[in-house]
Here is the input.
Amino acid sequence: MMDAHASGRTGTPEPQDEATIRVEHLTKSFGGRMVLDDLSFAVRAGTAFCLLGRSGTGKSVTLKHIIGLLKPDSGCVLVEGEDVPTLDRRHLARVRKRMGFLFQEGALFDSITVGENVAFPLRRHTDLSNEEIVRRARARLEAVGLGREYDRMPAQLSGGMRKRAALARAMALDPPILLVDEPSAGLDPITSDEIDALLLHAKRDQGKTLVVVTHNIPSARTLGDELALLDGGRLVERGTSADLERSDNPLCRQFMRAQGGG
Here is the structure.
């Protein structure tokens, strides 16, 4: 069994020089409802950390704290040593450029082409020439198998293609960190495996650090160096997939025996 509280790992993340992301005693409530309750964990550089849990347990809220879309009631979130909730707008923008965010529904801009979606972060955050921006955007789309889709509109793409285009946009600035919210949501098993392969390539071959929220246990096993189960806003189990397989926690056993998305 891997009991996160009993082991002390929930409240004692790894030393700072080993962690790219550190969440320490993070607490957040909405309308009097506790969503995150003294949450702590650390993610080592070049690894994938998968957050599991039922809907409404705070998984996506955790991602939004890491990228600075939400501020905690208490606790801190450090990304490469920067305490995200304390940063002013200019410094937060600098830290965000080090992170790519793959939203659950892709969140592509419907009014511009797929290529311009990928080019958007480059136009907003760099001084590159138009020619170089287009070249890089095309290269990002090529890397996810969408090299011919630059001039198409998002509405013309399938769900899996939109997810891949959104991944290309998240990778546009070549960030060392990827935050991924439900990469398998709404996808068939074959397309889900294709997205997992792209994320695994980003980790293994490009050295990216991944934080992945997922209900898909086969995907978590494929991607995750470490898995963590949230329940009631608290991290109740944490370890490798093998650790969680051996857990005595009934909820953990239920999750690890699941064969698909939730």
Residues 36 and 62 are 8 Å apart (CA to CA). Residues 1-16 have pLDDT under 50 and may be disordered. The first helix runs from residue 4 to 7. The first strand starts at residue 19 and ends at 30.
